[in-house]
Write a structure and sequence with these properties.
The protein is α/β, with parallel strands linked by helices. The protein has two domains: 61 residues, no CATH class; 92 residues, Nucleotidyltransferase, domain 5 (2-Layer Sandwich). Helix 1 crosses helix 3, helix 2 packs across helix 3 and helix 4 crosses helix 5.
Length: 176
C-alpha cells in the first residue's frame, strides 16, 4: 500500500514548498527574508504560509534527511559507534545517560536508565541496532558491561576498547 501524497491538497507545487522550507531551515534567514527571496523568483507567498509549511512539513523533511543519511552511512566500510555513559541528576536522583555517536560526531541515540549494568547496556545496544543496523566497529571505554552485552548479542564484528578512543562520545557529553 502506498503512502498518500502529503502535498495533495495544496495549490502550490511541492517543489516550491520544499524550496521555501529548505531556505528557511538551511540558511539563517527570517520568514520575511524567505518571502522576499521567493518573491524575487516570481513566487508570491506570505511569510505566514512559509511558517505553516515549516510546521507541517519540517519534521517530514528532517526524517527524510535522517533516513538518507543512515542509508549512506551503512555503506561505509568502517562505520564506527563510539559509546559512552555519563552520570546525570534528575530531580536529585542519579541516573545514567547512555549515548551512541557515529564517526562524524552526530548523536545517534540516547537512553536514560537508573542502573548501570549489563542489562541496561544490552537494552541500549538492541535499541540502537534495531534502528541503525549492525556497525563494523564499536568503540568503548573500559566499562565491562559493554563487553558482556556484546557477548549476548554476538553480531558485532569488532569492539575497540581504550581510554582515549571514544573521545567522540565523550565530547558529545559537553554541556549544551
Amino acid at each position: 500500500m502506498t503512502k498518500p501524497n502529503p502535498f495533495r491538497y495544496f495549490k502550490t507545487s511541492d517543489e516550491i514548498i520544499r524550496l521555501g522550507v529548505m531556505l528557511y531551515v538551511r540558511f539563517p534567514l527570517s520568514l520575511r527574508n524567505v518571502e522576499d527571496m521567493l518573491r524575487e523568483r516570481g513566487i508570491d507567498i506570505s511569510h505566514e504560509t512559509i511558517r505553516f509549511w515549516w510546521n507541517r512539513f519540517g519534521p517530514m523533511f528532517a526524517a527524510e534527511i535522517c533516513r538518507k543519511r543512515i542509508n549512506q552511512m551503512r555503506s561505509y566500510l568502517n562505520w564506527q559507534w563510539p559509546l559512552d555513559e555519563v552520570f546525570v541528576k534528575i530531580n536529585g536522583e542519579t541516573h545514567y545517560l547512555w549515548r551512541a555517536v557515529d564517526h562524524e560526531g552526530e548523536v545517534l541515540e540516547t537512553y536514560v536508565t537508573k542502573q548501570r549494568d549489563r542489562k541496561a547496556a544490552l537494552k541500549f545496544l538492541r535499541k540502537l541496532m534495531k534502528r541503525y543496523g549492525s556497525p563494523t566497529v564499536i568503540v568503548t571505554d573500559r566499562f565491562r558491561s559493554y563487553g558482556a552485552a556484546m557477548k549476548v548479542i554476538g553480531s558485532i564484528n569488532k569492539q575497540e576498547i581504550g581510554r582515549w578512543k571514544n573521545n567522540r562520545a565523550e565530547n558529545s557529553h559537553l554541556p549544551f
